[in-house]
Amino acid sequence: MEFIEKELEAIKKEGLYRSLRPVDGHQGAHITIDGKECLNLCSNNYLGLASHPKLKQAAVEAIQKYGVGAGASRLVCGNLKFYGELENRLAKFKKQEACLVFNSGYMANLGAITALVGRGDIVFSDKLNHASIVDAILLSRAELKRYPHKDMSALEGMLKDHRPCTIDHGQRKLIITDSLFSMDGDIAPLSDIVDLARQYGAMVMVDEAHATGIFGETGSGLSEHFGLGHEIDMHMGTLSKAFGCVGGYVAGKKELIELLINKSRALIYTTAMTPPSLASALAALDIIQKERWMAKVLLENAAFLRRGLIDMGFKLASSESQIIPILTGPSDMAVAFSRALFDEGIFIQAIRPPTVPEGSARLRLTVMATHKKQDLEMALEIIAATARRLGIAG
Ligand SMILES: Cc1ncc(COP(=O)(O)O)c(C=O)c1O
Questions:
Q1: DSSP states of 43-77
Q2: Which residue(s) pair with 23 in the sheet?
Q3: Number of alpha carbons in the 13 Å side-chain half-sphere of residue 21
Q4: Is 210 in the active site?
Q5: How far apart are CA 105 and CA 130, in angstroms?
Q6: pLDDT for residue 166
Q7: Is 178 in the pocket of ligand 1 (CB under 6 A)?
Q8: 315, 321, 322, 326: CA torsion to nearest 10
Q9: Strand blocks (E) in 303-353
Q10: What are residue 384's DSSP bridge partners?
């Protein structure tokens, strides 16, 4: 097994070595990591719900009534009654006929995509789509066509090249995009994608992992924001980010959900979610729907931080949201910046290839609704001083 040490050495040499760090206490605007309390600027717990008293109470009550495990997969005896309630409510939230909950967002993408397309089909996927989408397409054995980020003329060119021939072989075409891109924080041109899909006979799937709970009048995401709910065939979302819990879901037509129940291996061959995770997701949905001010505060905080960083001269990719990348270029620069900020009490994880394209390492800063103005002002000052000290542009 000598190759393992060699591989690890090579990873270290490239500045791409990763290790796990212990986190203690609540997930919040402040976090204790490696025993040190820091301002947390890299969590996807955007609304601060992961430690909200109502979610904790729902989880505790569910444990007391139902225990901590589901006992089996959903199709055996693990289909706890919370599932029905959560799926009905999520379907209404997304204004779709039906919904199916999976154990994680990763598994929702895996389960949905592999059930919908297979060998002989084609999937058109934005180059910056999340890894779970890419993995799912590869696993499905459909042909993967990656179009340059948000480049609609490139997508149209690819769709033209794959027009159906006179004999219909029943080939399925699927366009998939993140609605809010997880590493750049920018928004997909959903209307254009839907138009192209209709023109060239393709289905559309949208991953709303980072937009759910934040964008749209009722918080159901960017498809709602753009009024495209009924134009999109498969709506995917997570319960792990603004919801502050764990899980993922797919919403759409009844028959689609029926097919997923029958074909999604990521649903069939895994133990169902636990009672506290389902109950807390229901409590989170209540809050997301009733307390819309939280998303507003989040986006105000994001605008404040973005403006401050732009004024300092940082390159932020094309962020339009609570996800704000500070591009550093080389991976070792991103790691050095992250370490130096940690020493100053600010936690922002460095993100390196292969999570982001080669040469685009970054600090992926994320804002929360629970950050106070003073937190953000302090962060801006420390980020500026640390960048100056390290000779990083900004
Ligand atoms: C766009 C996108 N889709 C899917 C996922 C997977 O979701 P989960 O973390 O719930 O497995 C993520 C998580 O980072 C994501 O960013």
A1: -S-TTSGGG-HHHHHHHHHHHHHH-S---SBIIII
A2: 33
A3: 14
A4: yes
A5: 11
A6: 53
A7: yes
A8: -10
A9: 323-329, 346-347, 350-351
A10: none
> Residue 179 in contact with residue 190, Cβ under 8 Å?
yes
The CATH code of the domain at 53-290 is 3.40.640.10
Q: Is 238 in the pocket of ligand 1 (CB under 6 A)?
A: yes
Whole-number Å distance between alpha carbons of 179 and 177: 6
Tens digits of residue pLDDT in 37-78: 999 999 999 999 999 999 999 999 999 999 999 999 999 999
Q: Which pair of tokens denotes residue 260? A: 């997923």
- Cβ atoms of residues 79 and 273 within 8 Å: no
CA Rg value for the chain:
21
- Is 149 noted as a catalytic residue in this protein? no
Considering the four listed CATH numbers 3.90.226.10, 3.40.50.40, 1.10.8.140, 3.90.1150.10, the one that applies to the domain covering 15-44+292-390 is 3.90.1150.10
- CATH 3.40.640.10 in the chain: give the residue spans: 53-290
CA of 288 to the centre of ligand 1 (A): 19
Mutation pick for ligand 1 pocket among 132, 250, 277 (CB with most ligand atoms within 8 Å): 132
Give the orientation angle of helix 275-290 with respect to helix 293-311, to 10 degrees: 80
d(CA 365, CA 349): 8
User: SS3 of 174, please?
Assistant: strand
Q: Which residue has the tokens 């009490």?
A: 345
**Contact between residue 86 and residue 281 where contact means Cβ atoms under 8 Å apart:** yes
Report the distance separating Cα 306 and Cα 325, nearest Å: 10
Residue with CA nearest ligand 1 atom 9: 105
* Whether the model pTM is above 0.85: yes
Instruction: Show the CA angle centred on residue 242, arms to residues 236 and 246, nearest 5°.
Output: 70
* pLDDT tens string 285-320: 999 999 999 999 999 999 999 999 999 999 898 999
Tokens 């636990």 correspond to 274
Query: Given the structure tokens 């997570």, which residue do they identify?
Result: 238
Identify the residue whose tokens are 């998939």: 176
